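Dear Dr. H.,

I hope your travels went smoothly. While you were away I took the liberty of generating a structure for the chain from your last submission, since the lab meeting agenda had it listed for discussion. I wanted you to have the full record in hand beforehand rather than looking at slides cold. The sequence, exactly as received, is reproduced here:
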Amino acid sequence: MRANDVDVLMATMPENVLYASGFRSLSQWLIRGNKTPVVVVLGSGGDLTLVAPAGELDRAACDPPAVDSIIAFNTVTIEPGRADDWSAEDRRYAQMALGPGRPAGLWEALAGLGLKKAHRIAIDDPDLAAACRERYSAEVIDGRPLWQQSRLIKTPAERLRLRRAVEITEQAIRRSMEAVRVGMSEKQLGAVFEAALLEAGGRPYLTVIGAGSFGAYPNHVPGEYRIKKGDLIRWDVGAEYQGYVADIARTACVGEPNELQSRRWQAVLAGQKAALNAIRPGVAAADVYHTGMDAARRSGLPEIRRKHIGHGVGIDMYEPPSIGPNETLVLEPGMVFELEVLFYEFGFGSTQGV
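The corresponding predicted structure, in token form, is as follows:
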């Protein structure tokens, strides 16, 4: 904030709200066009305040967010019943959402948070930024680059969540690989995978599982195709764990691979290893891309073409940096991203995530 001379930094996009506070509003995530007004306000003194409709704060009662204060506005249509029957969560929720004196709307709720005195406000939503300009004398700037820059370097706590999301995903891949049988449908295999995710404590976030030619379909939904001997099966999958997601891939062959399958798999493996070995602080993301692609081509896959071979992961599945041919961003400690040297071909399928 100091570097950008900002007094008040506001998060309204659900990803940034979750990042800043740990709070996840269901309506804000599911009804994007409605723009449920959940806002996190970071003041110049470092105080973090969550401002939300009373009806959204049941999650805060069950899983208290990491903020200094919570301001509820509007009403909640839950009858109070008998206080003697309340659970601990009921009491927390009632303290936030019931009783007189609550602000009627968002702008009234924001009134005491220093926006009128601020000289520069950064906010990540263009519509709310325009509304701020109408109400306050401060200069209002686009806060999206500030949040993106902050989220680029993961904290130790974020890295732990991401690591656990990967562990859960890998465990579910292994379980589903063990379940593969000739004649099984992709849909059945996907169900095994997602059940294993849930059992391990994750939530299904991405389930792209394709066998045979469907392995080349980047966004394939597991369907009725029946797995055959000799098929390549591609998993491009990920669990969500405590708001953070994994995005990893694996390829397996049903039975012994033929010469073409083996050669292409080995070439992708060579590219993946070369790209991985190129990663270090101070290296441009584009250099990692070219290292991986060149190695795959030299190793027997001259026809490989990719717009990128990796991308950042975090709360979103696609975050900076992009490991692409023109990405000038320099890698730094704390960045988290996945690598995916891969090859698609109709009739062949895919080799990815060796």
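Two observations you may find useful: The chain has a mean pLDDT of 94. Residues 156-179 form the longest helix (24 residues).

With kind regards,
E. W.
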